């Protein structure tokens, strides 16, 4: 009983507007079909831009494996403790552990309608383990969105990014240049490039993507689950393609 009384007190302190908007959201969500979606694409392909749009439109939870691992470690869940042991030894967290953490996360109320997985599976073995776990629950991956984009376009997108470190303002040498080259418009301070945004780092990340993760696309294509998205298009056009893919 303690739980029910504490939750009612919590609700008393919530603004009516917030309660109503949550109620309306849940009513809207109740009519949405369940969806389990994987986003696959190289760094800079726009997955991060599209995932909040998909999450809101289809009432899904967003499972980013890196964030989930950190949360499990912080919460000291049994799986989090095991993951921390591996990390402390400098080892990679095992695929089984990551799948277990996804399994746990899927039980949350926010994941009732399904989920978006981003950053996992990166390998075919991981995809097989994920499918086994979902199979035990009587579900499967509904759609794999492949954010297809040419490496040369990615290089232009990513290596042109510069940021103002203290404010987080971002610029792009081609698409959104500062008024003065490599200087912040507001403060006049120098802009910096993130370590990950250099051509050398991008090259190694793309090589890893092509070697490890592209076979995952083939794996799901054989199951008829892949929809290709033209990720070089503007975000609005990509959103339209995503919506079309998810409504089929």
From TrEMBL:
Residues of the Adenylate kinase active site lid domain: 161-196
Alphabetized InterPro entries for the sequence: Adenyl_kin_sub (IPR006259), Adenylat/UMP-CMP_kin (IPR000850), Adenylat_kinase_CS (IPR033690), Adenylate_kinase_lid-dom (IPR007862), P-loop_NTPase (IPR027417)
Entry EC number(s): 2.7.4.3
Transferase found in the keyword field: yes
Class in the EC hierarchy, top level: transferase
Name of a matching Pfam family: ADK_lid
Role, per record: Catalyzes the reversible transfer of the terminal phosphate group between ATP and AMP. Plays an important role in cellular energy homeostasis and in adenine nucleotide metabolism.
UniProt similarity note: Belongs to the adenylate kinase family.
Protein's recorded name: adenylate kinase
